[in-house]
Amino acid sequence: MRSLEYIDKPVSAEVLDRIATVIGADKIKTEGENTVIVPTTQADVSAAVKAVIAAKGAINTKNAKHHAANEVLLDFSNMKDIEFIDTVNMTVKVQVGCRFEDLMNAVAEKGFMIGTSPAGKDATIEDFVYSELPGVGSYKYGTIKDNVFNVYAVDCNGGNIETGYDTLGYYMSGFNVTQTLTASAGRIAIITAVTLKMVPAGVIKAEAYEFADADAMQAALAKVAQEPSVKPFHISFNEKKAVFAFQGDEAFVDLDMAAMDAICEGATKINDDLFTGIEGAECMCPKRPTFYIP
Q1: CA distances from 51 to 15, 160, 192, 210, 286 (A)
Q2: Phi–psi pair at 82, nearest 5 degrees
Q3: What is the pLDDT of residue 20?
Q4: 138-171 per-position pLDDT tens digit
Q5: What is the pLDDT of residue 273?
Q6: Could you give the dihedral angle defined by the CA atoms of residues 92, 96, 99 and 102, in that order, rounded to the nearest 10 degrees?
Q7: With contact defined as beta carbons under 8 Å apart, do 143 and 133 qualify?
């Protein structure tokens, strides 16, 4: 975010001193050309945003893909708490510095999962929540915006925003601010925490096929899309190979996989373990290796 009267120059020492008075000097550091603030609360973020915008500056998250030279950056590495896991309403509130893998492990202990998630094992909530990118599970559960119930954020004036509710989705008439902020890349507000929808974990199984050619694979994918009942958790394909993953109660997952055999009739079912070793890749979440084709 940047001031409407933005001046492309570093934020002054006076402004940084004012921020330090509120949040503590130990939370402010310099990295290269950028001043970096490491907040621990939403109040810290609010104080920083308010001061920087009032000084006609710009503020962004450190994890953003692009930074301007004189932007103040917010490093959320110290805001990584899972604030609650509500097994009755099936929601979880988590700060944006939390790694998605850590969140998935925590909700898995309660018998749940998040419907869609990034593939990388070091990806944080912040990395995923600002985007409208698909993830593992998006075929069944949609993108991240479809799995967020509530967003806690700070607007350009330093004001606190809560866009929805922690126990149910907001899908009434009018603007859906929750879904707007989750695809905003931090340009509208700085997100500090989100409440995500959980789903019962069940089991996840995957099977792979090799088709005669791209046309045969396309025909199978079209059949899957037109199926009233078969709903893969995730689909991956490369050249003539495709992987279909299913999630849910094991009895229903087995029925779905049997239906996939019929849909892919004529294709060669791959029984070899294509995925051995991929769990050792540094960028991969080790619990999600079977949805990718090497």
Answers
A1: 7, 14, 17, 58, 42
A2: -90, 110
A3: 92
A4: 899 998 888 999 999 999 999 999 998 898 877 6
A5: 59
A6: -20
A7: yes
Instruction: Report the distance separating Cα 117 and Cα 120, nearest Å.
Output: 9
Domain boundaries, the chain: 13-76, 79-200, 203-291
Return d(Cα 103, Cα 92) in angstroms, integer: 9
* Angstrom distance (rounded) from CA 210 to CA 268: 5
**Residue ranges, the chain, pLDDT below 70:** 171-173, 272-294
In CATH, which of 3.30.43.10, 3.40.50.2300, 3.40.50.720, 3.10.290.10 is domain 13-76?
3.30.43.10
Check if the beta carbon of residue 140 is closer than 8 Å to that of residue 231.
Answer: yes
The CATH number corresponding to 203-291 among 3.40.50.1980, 3.30.70.3450, 1.10.340.30, 3.40.50.10490 equals 3.30.70.3450
The highest-level CATH class for domain 79-200 is alpha beta
Tokens, residue 65: 């893909």
Buried/exposed code over 91-127 (b: 16+ C-beta within 10 A; e: otherwise): bbbbbbbbbbbebbeebeeeebbbbbbbebbebbbbb
Q: What is the DSSP string of 222-257?
A: HHHHH-SS---SEEEEETTEEEEEEEE-HHHHHHHH
Q: CB atoms < 10 A from the CB of 83, how many?
A: 13
pLDDT tens for each residue of 265-285: 999 988 765 555 555 555 545
